[in-house]
UniProtKB/TrEMBL annotation:
PANTHER family from the UniProt entry: 1-ACYL-SN-GLYCEROL-3-PHOSPHATE ACYLTRANSFERASE (PTHR10434)
Organism: Shinella zoogloeoides
Sequence intervals crossing the membrane: 12-31
Pfam families: Acyltransferase
Name recorded for this polypeptide: 1-acyl-sn-glycerol-3-phosphate acyltransferase
Cross-referenced InterPro entries: Plipid/glycerol_acylTrfase
GO biological process assignments: phosphatidic acid biosynthetic process
Amino acid sequence: MIALRSVLFNALFYLNLIGQMIVLTPVYFLLPRKKAYVIAKNWARSNHWLFEKIVGTTFEIEGLENIPKGGYIFAPKHQSFWDAYALLPWLDDPLYILKRELTWIPLFGWYIKKQRMIPVNRNARGKVMAAVMERTKAEMDTGRQLIIYPEGTRRPPGAPPEYKYGIARLYRDLHVPVVPVVMHPGLFWPRRKFIRQPGHFKVIILPAIQPGMDPDAFLAHLVEVMETASDRLLVETVEANPRLVLPPTAVQRLAELKARGA
C-alpha cells in the first residue's frame, strides 16, 4: 500500500508542478514580483495537502515566534526535496543563491529569474564571487530572507554533520541574524528514493543567532545548537512514528545516542 501511495503521490506531485506552472504563468508574469510569490507559496501548500491526503504525512512548525522581522539568513537542515519548498508560505520574501544552470530550464528558469534569485557558477572565484555577494547584500538590504543550507547538500537523517564554512562568511559579510532550523523530513521523503512514508514530524525554528560573533565562533555555535536539537528531534520523531523504516544513518545515530544515554 505504501508503494502504491508513493507512486500516486509522485505522479500527482509532478503533474501539479507542471500544470500550475503552465496554467498560472500568465498570471505570474503579470503580477508584481513580490505579489507573484503567492503562486509558489500556494503550490507548496497544495503539495502539503497531497502529502497528507495521499501518503498520510503531516507536519507542524514550532518556533515561528523566533523568526525576526526584515532580512535574515534562514538556515535549515537539508534532507529531502520537501524542505526545498515546504517552508516558503511562512517566509515573507525568500531568496536563494543557486547554480546558474537552473535558470536555463524553460519556465522554471523564468520563474526564478523574476524572483531575482542569485545564480552562481560553482567554479567561479575572485571577482565573480564578489559580485554575487554584492548582489546578495543588495537584495538582503530590501528585507529579504536568504535561504542557505549550512551543510550545502542533502544529508540523510542521522548522518554525521558536514557544515560548510560558507555560511560563516555570509554571516560575517551580511551582518544579519541567522535562524537555525532542524527537522527530519528525510525519514518520510528520503533522498533519491520514490517511497514516501506516512507519519507526523516537527519543524523546529530555533532562536536567531544575532550578528557580531567571530565567524569561527559562530560556526561552532551553529553546529552545536543545530546538532543538539537535531539529535533530540530524531529520537522524538522515531518514537512518535514506530512503523517508520529507518535509513542506516538514523539507526546508527540512534544507537550512539542510546549508548551515551542521550
